[in-house]
Amino acid sequence: MLTALALGLGLALLLVSLGLLDGGHEQTIADGVRFGPGHVVVQAKGYQDSGSDELLLPALDVANIENFLQTGNIRHVVRGISPRLLATGLMSTSASSAGVKIVGVIPEDDRAVSLIPQRMVEGTYLSSNDKLSGVVVGDELARKLELKIGSKAVLMTQSLRPSGAATANGDGDEMQSTLLRVSGIFRTGIQGIDANMIYLPLPAAQALLGVTGDQVTQVTLLLAQEGDSPMVARALRKQLAGEPVEVLTWRESLPMLAQILGLDHAFNYVMNGVILAMVGLGILNTILMRVLERRYEFGVSKALGLRPRQLALMVIGESLALTAISLVLGLALGLSVQHYFATAGLDLRWVFKAGLPPALVFDPILYSRLSADRIVWSVSIVFAMATIISFYPALKAAQTDLPDALKVV
Amino acid sequence: MDEWAVKLSDVRKTYRTGPIEVPALRGVTLSIAAGEFAATAGPSGSGKTTLLNIIGGLDRADNGEIWVAGQNLQILSSGDLAHVRLQRIGFVFQTYNLLPVLTALENAEFTLLLQGMPARKRRARVEKLFSEIGLAGLEDRRPAELSGGQQQRVAVARAMVTEPALILADEPTANLDSASAIALLDVMEQLNRTTRTTFLFSTHDPQVMERAHRLIRLRDGQIVSDNTRNSQTAAVA
User: Fold this and answer.
1) Are B58 and A406 in contact (CB < 8 Å)?
2) What are phi and psi of A173, to 5 degrees?
3) Which of A40, A50, A159, A338 is least buried, going by the fewest C-beta atoms within 10 A?
4) Domain B4-228, CATH homologous superfamily name and number
């Protein structure tokens, strides 16, 4: 019974560990893409490498992308499309100034893609009805610039229009500035976003930067399922073939996140391997001890005519029966704990009292997610391990020495 | 049935513990005809148990030929030896060697189970045998709930139930009181008479020696006398 419990506990640990790992990754990806460039992003060719504000998508391509995503089967997998204009600038108040990343968005479109509207802590998110001067900032930036709802701030940036052309807000100089009024403050818990990003309506951003027509930096897509990213990216690449654009999945647009998750996966596989190896050694020890304890019984059976091969199969059969019981116990325990973490979550905020690391997109409450594939995989691994482990004790049983084993101890 | 149940030729066995060598059998040549009721006797260490273990395929000789029920045991694999034990040989051990977790009936039918006999047939055969040897009513008792004599009779039933050509009984009366020993010998002698099953005992017990139709005396791993009850002929190996 102890062996069954040990093996069941091993499986339960594996299921809980994989559930938290997959849940954490799913959440991290979901948060990462919604705070960043979406599951798939279309942008001017070279923007990923250079990050140059001057690389803009032609207006025709933006319309083409939006039309394409409304057609065929692909429209069923796309949950949101948000064109964005990105630039860098300097935001100043009477208290201080700070470098910022400007994100010009169509508020209604961005609500379907971005998590920022859901993370407002003061005021409200942007709306198309807002005056052009509305801006949403992170709480870190607001603290640094001593901004409150309704506060005014000056945003200064370099015009993206050709030198010498007139802009809406300026007199033709390359440096442009505008007065903005804070309409909302958000907090994501991610320092890199809360201290740097500002969101303003796309027309305001386009006017400030001197961008003509409907040009934007990128079109970001949120999909119903992360797994559809490669398929949607392929379809878009085909549709936009020949255009000076690049279509990237989140793994390509957020390579560091993909690498961190890959490393985390690898580390967890190693840890799970260690857990399984420890459980396996424990089981091997227990089964082997049982075989030694039953030496007399095996000796009598062998003396009466049980073949060594039958004896080995008997031990393997018993081990498999034990494994089956263990798997039922492990599944019951593992799935119960998994269900708890899937609904209540594992709150890790106490670990990050000082704030989340700036480079990490991470929700401190982990919700477990476990697919049927993972359960089948885990059960198969544990079953295979237990089967392989039973071979050695089975061999020892088959090799029971006669007539020594007949001696009554 | 073969004319000879057992035929040994120059069988030798030496036990080795590190550098120490202890010769147990030193060139034993012996033939036991089918249907004999024979016993080997001799002091401790004379090689009686080793001889029975080798004849029963529980141990292997270093040298010599061992034919049992028409099979040359020396050339058989351990799997084939197990098959010979299951089909042709029955064992009665000094310490009974019953499986403590099984009932008397389950212990007795164990070899039939290994032979693949259906449960109903097994049960019928064991019950018939139990009634013949005075174990009726004890079928569901576990070994710990039986007396020594009853346990040894269960062991005899287990050995007999497959109707083997040869039954090897190693000191079967050693742990029994006198009355139980006589009762057990009665059972075995009757079985020998009615079924023509060959019995070979190893024993210290004078009662067994008296009842054996043939007495083979061993000393220091060699046969020193071989007497049948009728002829009282000595045949020194």
Assistant:
1) yes
2) -70, 155
3) A50
4) P-loop containing nucleotide triphosphate hydrolases (3.40.50.300)
